[in-house]
Amino acid sequence: ALATTRPDEAWATRLGSERVGRIFLEAPDGGDPDAGASWKIEEHDSRTSKYLHGVWGNEDAVWLVGEGGTARRIKRENVGSRVFEVIPTPVTTLLRGVYGIATNDVWAVGDDATVIHWDGEAWTRIATPFDRMAEKPTLASVWGSGPKDVWIGGNGIMLHFDGATP
Q1: CB 55 within 8 A of CB 11
Q2: If you average pLDDT over residues 55-82, what whole number do you get?
Q3: Which residue, 26, 35, 65, 130, shows the most beta carbons closer than 10 Å to its own?
């Protein structure tokens, strides 16, 4: 998975791994990036041995999701520590995708039609039309243009959250 957080930075996970890397443009002596800047890669501690499948970030934070309901976050002010914080989720299913509208409006999706939402304080499981089905689809990706326009897809399924119900 790969996510860009700004023009001079991207974050990536390696499929089948707990590893996460930050790729960034480093200007010499913190100066002008057009004067001899070079791309650097540094590994960050995801604080998990579970495989990671999704990454999303913005100027304020980067989120990782993966096996066993794993969710990790690193805030911008802590990037220098290279250590993600553990954020508990209410699920144990494999989370495959994550996307945020803002730092207090983040969505993650995964196996068994799992949808969870971060409100800035905690993750909450969101009901879907598949909750009562014996065989639930895998949800793999999520994207949105705003709090009342979130799209979720996977296994031939599309869900739309309009602020009320998915």
Answers
A1: yes
A2: 97
A3: 65
